[in-house]
Amino acid sequence: MIGEKVDANCRACRSSELRSVLSLGNTPLADALVSSEEVDGPEATYPLDVAFCSNCALMQILETVPPEELFCRDYPYFSSFSDTVVNNAKENTEHLIATRDLGKDSFVIELASNDGYLLQNYVKAGIPVLGIDPADTVVKAALDKGVPTLERFFGLDLARELAEEGKKADVIHGNNVLAHVADLGGFVDGIAIALKDDGVAVIEVPYVRDLIDHNEFDTIYHEHLCYFSVTALTNLFRSHGLYLNDVKRLPIHGGSLRLFIEKKDAPTDYIKQVLAEEQELGIDEFDYYRNFGQNVEKLITGLRGLLGELKADGKRIAAYGAAAKGATMLNCSKIGTDVLDYVVDRNVHKQGLFMPGVHVPIDAPEKLVEDMPDYVLLLAWNFKDEVLGQQAEFRDKGGKFVIPVPEPQVV
Ligand SMILES: [Zn+2]
Question: Which of 221, 177, 410 has the alpha carbon at shortest distance from 331?
Fold first, then answer.
């Protein structure tokens, strides 16, 4: 029930002031693609319940799936498969190299460095780097690119080891990792230890304000334990002796924040303005989150209704984007093989597998032009411009896309 007090402690501040925001039912792990041998076997599901802490203003899910189950499988996400992600990383690193005067005597660490998509920019500029990532497949891809990478989880222990070896960083990157961390306190303490006194941690997280404004409920899944506002982040870092001094809003992943965290308390005028905006919105109060659940239910009903009408008209429907948010959208909306013929994805490691839970098969994007389904549900709506550009031929031939959020729309 929305608004009900929850029997749990906050992931960040340990307070018991948690109230229920939304329940998305039991769903499989959103990245756990299913092979053809597994498709008839049992599949683990976990509750997906969202709550809000009125003490530190952090929205979070209640279930913690062990990280070994989430991240140490044959992890299928390669950052380099997305032009948007690669370009965002390039812009980010070029700006830092110029403004912080980084060179061969500098040292850059990236947490959750994936396949080296970001650090390769520093390597090309002759700046020493270390990537850290627990997933063996992406670590291998990074090493093949010449990006030194440790196959480890980052936390307090590894930070202390690095500090003892004299490996403190001028810049610590961490994109889309903070929300994944079960031991949030240990992770932030680790950043404080691994960072030089005049260093900066540059961390990207999805912005809860964009999530709620645009009904992006499909970005809520078991990997994402926390959903951050600038207010919540300011509280978090301060309680570990770090200061969130500046922030940049990015369109990537449906709306993200690039955070600039230092060891001195020196907030920019811009972050003061963002904090004032959040205050105005009431982002630290439960009322802001109350309607979110109802809006999500309305969206799901609308999307199911639209796709149902198209099927009733005899239309053929496929989908684009076999990522975690796609699995969440399909499982929470109960859109399966009765509606979709297949899902396409650029990642060759996913092709031939099946979406978790709903078991829709995954194929290559080229199939859209060959097969010409009438409609394609764009599960990867966060890469809308990129995908619509790539699929110009499909659209020229009369193919249509259904964009599910912020409300279902045909283009
Ligand atoms: Zn809290």
Answer: 221
Q: Are 152 and 109 spatial neighbours (Cβ–Cβ below 8 Å)?
A: no
Q: At what angle do helices 230-238 and 269-281 cross, to 10 degrees?
A: 120
Give the tens place of pLDDT for each residue, 228-283: 999 999 999 999 999 999 999 998 877 999 999 999 999 999 999 999 999 999 99
Extents of the domains making up the chain? 289-410
Residue owning tokens 């811009």: 270
- Taking the centre of ligand 1 as the mean of its atom positions, its distance from the CA of residue 10, in whole angstroms, is 4
CATH number of 289-410: 3.40.50.720
Q: Take residue 393 and report the two structure tokens written for it.
A: 């031929």
Query: Measured between alpha carbons, how far is 276 from 207 in angstroms, rounded to an integer?
Result: 16
Asked if 262 and 204 touch (Cβ cutoff 8 Å), the reply is no
Ligand 1 centre to CA of 246 (Å) is 22
Dist. CA 226 → ligand 1 center (Å): 11
What residues have CB less than 8 Å from 14, skipping those under 6 apart? none
The two three-digit tokens of residue 215, written as one number: 């009904």
Query: What's the pLDDT at 21?
Result: 93
pLDDT tens-digit readout, 12-63: 999 999 999 999 999 999 988 999 999 999 999 999 999 999 999 999 999 9
Structure confidence at residue 294 (pLDDT): 84
Instruction: Kindly give the distance from the C-alpha atom of residue 15 to the centroid of ligand 1, in angstroms, as a whole number.
Output: 5
Supply the pTM of this predicted model. 0.88
Give residue 9 CA to ligand 1 midpoint distance, Å: 8
Q: How far is the CA of 30 from the centre of ligand 1 (A)?
A: 26
pLDDT for the residue 71: 61
**Cα 31 to ligand 1 centre (Å):** 27
Which pLDDT does position 59 carry in this prediction? 97
Q: Which residues of the chain have pLDDT under 50?
A: 75
In this prediction, residue 388 carries a pLDDT of: 96
Taken in order 337, 341, 342, 343, is the CA torsion positive or negative?
negative
**Cα 212 to ligand 1 centroid, rounded to whole Å:** 19
* Residue 281 alpha carbon to ligand 1 centre in Å: 19
Rounded-to-integer distance, Cα 290 and Cα 279, Å? 16
What is the Å distance from ligand 1's center to 232 Cα?
Answer: 8
